[in-house]
Structures are given as C-alpha cells and as structure tokens.
Amino acid sequence: MDNVGDWLYIVFLIIAAVSGLFSSKDKKKKSRPDILGQPDREIVPNDQPTEGKGFWEILEDMQKETQKPKPAPRQKQVKSKVEKPQVVTSSPASSPFLSAEKNIPNHIATQPSVRMSAIEEEPGLMPEDTFKATYLEFLNLSKKYHITFHEVHQEMTAGRSTMQEKYAQLALENTVRLLGIDSPSGYTENAAKYVQAQFAQMGYDAKITRKGGVLIDLGGEDAQDALLLEAHTDTLGGMVAQIKGNGRLRITNVGGMNANNAEAENVRVITKFSGAIDGTVQLCDASVHVNGNYSTTPRTFDTVEVVLDEDVRSAEDVRKLGIDVGDFVCFDPRSRITESGYIKSRFLDDKLSVGILQAFAQYLKDENLTPKRRVYVHVTVYEEVGHGGSASVPDGVTEAISVDMGCVGEGVQCTERQVSICAKDSGGPYSYDVVRKLIAAAKREGADYAVDVYPHYGSDVEATLRAGYDIRHGLIGAGVYASHGYERSHRDGALNTLKVIEGYLFE
C-alpha cells in the first residue's frame, strides 16, 4: 500500500468484519445450530435467515460504494480446467477389439477442488491484494470462536482418503487393459501371463499354476494365519459346435453366456492354428423385413448363429479358413469409461476385481505396508464353469475371500457405487465371523457398503470349500449392474471395495 487512504480502507474493513461477527453472535445465541457436532460454534447455515448484515454482505456493500467514483477492474473468472481424457494403450497381447476403442480414457476426470483463486477471481469482488488481506484477518477472527477450516475439512472428509481415490482410478485403468485380452474359460493363457507380468513388475512373486491361474504372494508377517484373496480373469464366451452347410457357425455357450445377450455382438473365432476370424452373432434369418417371426422367435443357441466376415458359402469354405469344431468364440467387450466415473463393458465380472487387486498391490508397495497376516492373491481361470478356486491354496491359509462382483437389481440393496458384502448365495451362507469382520472393516474405513443375499450366484471360495479345504470364507465385490450382459459399475464401487480390503487387513 502506497498511501494512507489504502491503509484506512483496510482498517475500516477489519472493523466491519469484527462488528459483523459480534453482532451476529448476539442475535443467534438462542437458536445456535449444532455445527458438525460442536454446539459452541457460531456459524449460521446458509438456509437460516439472519437479522442485519454479516461480514460478507457488509464487505460487498462497501466494495460497491468504493467502486462508484472509480470502478475497480473486474477480475476475469477462471473456470477450473478438467484434464482431457487420454486413450489407454493396450498391451501387446490385447485384442483388436480394444485397439479400436479411441474413447477409453486413461485418467478419469475428478471433481476440481475449491481453490482460493476461484474465490479471488469472482467478478464483482474487491481487488486481489485487498481481498487476501481481509480474508486472512477473517481467519484470525474465526480462531476466537474455535472455528477453523482445517477442522471443517477433517469432519467433511472423515473416512475418505485421497490416496484411495487415486488407486480406485488405477483399478479402472487396469481393468480396461485386461478387458482387451480375450479369455473365455479354457482360453485364458494370454490373460494369465499378462496378470503375472503386471504383479511381477511391481516386485511380487507371481507364478502360473498348473491349472493356468496366477498365484501371487503379497507378503505379510504371520504365514500360519494367512488370507487368500480370489478373483477370476476367465469370462463367458462360446465355442464352435457345428459348421453349417451355408457357411454359418452354430455355437455352444461357455459359462453362463445367454443367447439373448449374444445376439448382434461382434465376435472373433480363435482357430487352433490359423489365427482369428471376425464375425457377428445374428438370429438365423435376421432381417425383420424378410422373417415374419423375427419378434416371436425365442433366442437360443439353436436359433442364433455366427455370420463370418469372410466370403464363405459352404462348410468347405469355412474349413479352408482353418475354422473347426472346438474353436473358441470371443465376444467384443465394448469397454467404456465415462467422465462421470462409470465403467461399462462385458466381463466386468470379474476383471474389475482383478484390476482392484492389482491396484491394492500397488498401494502396498507405494506405502511400504506389510500386513500382519500373510496375504495371497489367486487369479483363477475356471470360475465361470464352477471350479476356479478348487486348487492352489497355499499352506497356512485360514480364510479365503472371493473378490467378485456385487449383485445389483430388484430384491438386493447394493448399487454400482457401493461395495457389496454377501451373507448368503445359492451355495449357502458365508462364514458369519468373516461377514461380521467385513462389515466392521467397512464401518471403520467409512466405506459405502450393502449386505445382500444373492439368489442365483456361486463363487470361487465355495469351490475352494467343496475341494475340501478347512477355511473360513467370505465374498465382497463392487456393485455390477446387468451381470452376464453389458455390465456397468462405478469408480466409487472400486474405491469402497479397496477400503474394505484395507480395513480387513489393517484393523
């Protein structure tokens, strides 16, 4: 400040601030609200009218008066910039389906935080330097009433970790990359090798099992009370059952693939020795303008067929391409991540959970954390056909938790933005002790969760129990809508799943 007038201006502002605060204090003694659980605080919510003018109203009136003879230059309003989505690059082993996707972001846009600059640059307020000085004085005055912005921030963000949001975002990126690798049950080698490489790159001991899954040792102290986390990278799919005389293919389902969800989907036929051939699953006689029974025809794998994107008109033409009975049919996942945080794709069941466990492993490394219990991850490859978790349980494991999808739909509570804790499914109830501990972990970590009973569901850990292992078992997963179809979940579902895993291991 170069002159006396400026200094008098600042002094007057401070006096006005003090006056406004004390006058409002006297008028609110009888009806003070309980702010953040502390009734002694003198903050009045915005929705409660007050008599007279407070500090900010006085400040604005003074500013208008001083601007009449010589208008102060208006500060340009600066909008928060949101980083443009970047394309996720697929791995060398990824499917051409993914390489064709140009709209899958590498980073999910997050809500911009409130910045000082956003307040300073609001049109109609005082110049920047003057505002800063007054704002600092207001902070000093607020301390007299034990109101600090740090306290408010702590209360508002209780149970939420910026770190965890970072790893939830990483989980979605991991998922998209894995979704680009075809892996119907029985054809999972490429996906398993990719998962192994990702964990090994982080420095973990990751091995391919005889069955084709991936067993990872995340470390931990007590190897005699170890925890096994199970997720699966195998998916639904199809297999060539017949080469028709017209050059079309009849297929049989792999896992719970439904013909209603298979119709009109792009596929790749993986030949045993001649590469991959593109095609589409269509209703037999698929033109509504020709087929008068189009709408009433039941969709089964006898009424749909694969139409190859090749000039084939006979079974012999098809065989010349190298296609034969027993070849796998892989479906385009059609992966998308929206700016609002939703992830849409086929096969989020259960590649989303694999992505979550990869992110959790990265979190342990970054934070240099060692669980008190030894922790193993088993990425299975036959879950969709019922026996994924039936083997490869390390010595010392006393509990196994399946990290799979949470059910979303009529009759269950879970949403796509929550983590689901399953109490019972078609295989029976899960360990009461484990369910209670999972709920307690969710509460401690501030995770948004639901407890549900799944009517039509089976998991890896149930296969583990049927194989004869003496363990306690549980099931959690991010909420997934439209399971076994074109599925959808949300970044918050991944975040809440991460919170429960963290809380379960670090009580």
The number of helical elements comes to 14
Question: What top-tier CATH class of the largest domain fits best?
Answer: Alpha Beta
Residue ranges: pLDDT <50 for 5 or more in a row?
25-51, 70-96, 98-125, 144-161
Which bin fits the share of residues in helices? Answer: 25-40%
CATH fold-level label of the largest domain: Aminopeptidase
Number of DSSP E strands:
19
Distance between the termini: 55 Å
Q: Can you say what the CATH homologous superfamily of the largest domain is?
A: Zn peptidases
- Approximately how much beta-strand content do the residues carry? 15-25%
Describe what you observe in this structure:
It is a single chain. Residues 25-51, 70-96, 98-125 and 144-161 have low confidence and may be disordered. Strand 6 and strand 7 form a beta hairpin. Helix 1 runs antiparallel to helix 2 (55-67) and helix 7 packs across helix 11 (348-367). The strands form three sheets. Strands 1, 2, 3, 12, 13, 14, 15, 16, 17 and 18 form a ten-stranded mixed sheet that branches. A six-stranded antiparallel sheet has the order 5-4-9-6-7-8. Strands 10-11-19 form a three-stranded antiparallel sheet. The protein is built from 14 helices and 19 strands. It is of the alpha+beta class and 507 residues long. The chain has three domains: 4-71 and 126-156; 162-234 and 347-505, Aminopeptidase, CATH 3.40.630.10; 237-331, Elongation Factor Tu (Ef-tu), domain 3 (Beta Barrel), CATH 2.40.30. The protein starts with a helix and ends with a helix. The radius of gyration is 30 Å and the shape is globular.
